[in-house]
Amino acid sequence: MIHNETMMQYFEWYLPNDGLWWKRCSAKADNLAGLGVTRVWLPPAYKGTSQEDVGYGVYDMYDLGEFDQKGTVRTKYGTKDEYLDAIRSFHANGIKVYADIVLNHRMGGDETEKVRAVTDLADDRTQQVGGKQSVEVWSKFTFPGRGGKYSTFTWDHRHFSGTDWAVNEENSDRIYRFLGKRWKKDTDPEKGNFDYLMGMNVDMGNPVVRDETRKWLKWYLDFTGVDALRLDAVKHISFSFYKELLERIRSETGKELPAVGEYWSGDIERLLNYLDSVENEMSLFDVALHYNFFHASQGGADYDMRHILDNTLVKERPSHAVPFVDNHDTQYGQSLQSFIEDWFKPLAYALILLRSEGMPCVFYSDYYGNPVQNRPMVANLGKLIKARYLYAYGEQEDYFDDPHVIGWVRRGDKAHSDSGMAVLLSNGEGGSKRMYMGRKFAGCSFFDIIGKCTEEIVIDEEGWGTFRTEGGSVAVWALQNAFENLIVNE
Fold first, then answer.
1. I need a surface site. Which of 15, 43, 271, 449 has the fewest CB within 10 A?
2. How far is Cα 360 from Cα 352, in angstroms, rounded to an integer?
3. Per-position b or e across 291-303, b if 16+ CB within 10 A of its CB
C-alpha cells in the first residue's frame, strides 16, 4: 500500500554541541516511522570551521567527523561512523535520508595567498568601486589532517571567484572579486547579482571545480548511501550548474536521487523561473507559502484566509513544491527570522499536511519544542502527521469562500481504510461550513481528532455535513475508527 510522503527536518540551529546527535537520530528512527514520517533531512555532516559549526561554514566535505581538523575529530553532531549508523537506522525503518549539500562557499582556509582583485559594492555587485589591488586572502585549502584520504584535490584562489574579507583590509561594504573572474549572470538578481553569499565563493564556471564537485558527490552518495539531496542556497549558484550536475550524477549512478533546493525568495515568479531554468530537475521549498503563513499569523483576523495559497508553489507548481512552516533559518535570532506565531502553527500544518499538493516538510522544533528559545511543541502535530499518513486521501474539494473560515474535504479512497476527512480552520471567531463528503459517507459519524469540538457530525443521506471549528483554531473531522486510532497513537 502506498502512503503519503512526509519529510521531517531533523535538526534546528540551537542543538547542543555534545556530539550525540547522530546517536539520537538512530534512537528515534523507529518512532518517526511509526508516526508516518517517510523522509528525513539531516544537517550537513562534514567538517566546518569549528566544532560549534551548524554545518554551513563548510571546510572539508570529505571529512564526516573522521579526521583531526579545525581542533576536532567529531563534528557538532558526532563522528563519521555514528553518521553512517544513523543512515542505516533510518533505512531499516523504511525512511529515506536527505543529505544537506552546501556547495556555494568554503570557509576556514589553511593558508593565505596574495591575489589580485577589484572591489564591488556589497549591495550592488554590478558596481565596481575599486581598481586592481593585491589582497591577502585565506584561499588555500590543503586539509593536512586528512592527508589525501578519499581525495588529493586541494583548493586555491583559482577555484574561487571572490570573498568579502582580506587580511588587514576593512571594507565591510565591499566584496573582493578576483581578477579575471565575473559573477555568474544566471543567479538571483537581488543586490544586482547574488552570486556571492559568504566566505570563499566557489567558482562554478571553472571546469576543474565542476569536475571535482561531481566526483565528490558521487563519492558521497556511494560512501554514505543517502537517498536524496537538500541543496543549499541554489539562488547564489549558476542556474545551469545544478541541472547539469543532477542529470549527470543520476545517469552515472542509476539512482533516482530526488532533490529539493532552497531558493530563498517569497516572489513566486522567481521560484517558477528557477524551476523552468533547471527544467524541473528538482523541487523547491515553498518559501512564498511560508511568507503567506507569516503574514497571516501576524495579521490575525485582519488577514483574508481565502488567499492563503495565492502566489505559492503548492498552487502554481504543486508537483515540485515542498511546503513548510518554519526551518532553522527562520528561527528567532537567525538571518531570515520570520517565525510563524504559535497560535497559527496548527492551522499552517493542517494546510501543508492534509492537502494533496506538494510533499510537506515538518520542522524538528515544531514537533519536539525548543527549550533553548522557550518555544513549545505544536499541539497535535503528531496527530496531523499520522492523519496524513493514514487518512488524507482521495478527491479534494476546497471551500475557500469566507475571509475567516476556510475548509476542504478529502473523500478517501478504497486503498486506505477509513480514509477521508473534512478540515475547517479559522483565524477569527470560528464558525461552521456545510461541505460535501459524498454519498458513500451517508449516515457515517465524524469526530474532531484535535478535540476542541466534542460533538458528533453525521453525514446526511445526500452526503453533506455541517462541520465546525473554534476561533483561531483548526478542526479535523475523521471517521470514528480513524478518530479512535489517532487518539490511541497520540
1. 15
2. 6
3. bbbbebbeeeeeb
Is 247 designated active site?
A: no
Please state, in angstroms and rounded to a whole number, the distance separating the CA atoms of residues 217 and 29. 25
Which domains, and CATH codes, for the chain? 7-103+208-390 (3.20.20.80), 106-205 (2.40.30.140), 395-489 (2.60.40.1180)
Choose, from 53, 120, 195, 262, the residue flagged as catalytic: 262
Q: What is the residue type of 25? A: C
Closest by CA to 352, choosing from 7, 10, 2, is 7
Q: Is position 66 annotated as part of the catalytic site?
A: no
pLDDT band at 488, cuts 50/70/90? low
Predicted TM-score (pTM) of the model is: 0.96
Q: Is 169 exposed, middle or buried (0-12, 13-18, 19+ CB in 10 A)?
A: middle
3-class SS at 460?
A: coil
At residue 116, the pLDDT reads 97
Q: Cell 461541505 maps to which residue?
A: 435
**Grid coordinates representing 124?**
550592488
Contact present, 322 and 280 (Cβ < 8 Å): no
Which of 339, 350, 346, 348 minimizes the C-alpha distance to 375? 339
Quick one: CA torsion of 442, 448, 452, 455, rounded to 10 degrees? 30
Positions of E strands within 234-381: 259-261, 283-285, 321-322, 361-363
pLDDT at 294 over 80: yes
Helical residues (DSSP H) of 268-331, grouped into ranges: 268-277, 287-299, 313-316
pLDDT tens-digit readout, 217-228: 999 999 999 999
DSSP state of 232: T
Rounded percentage of the chain residues whose pLDDT exceeds 90: 93
The SS3 call for residue 223 is helix
Which one is catalytic: 100, 227, 232, 286? 232
C-alpha grid cell, residue 380: 497535535
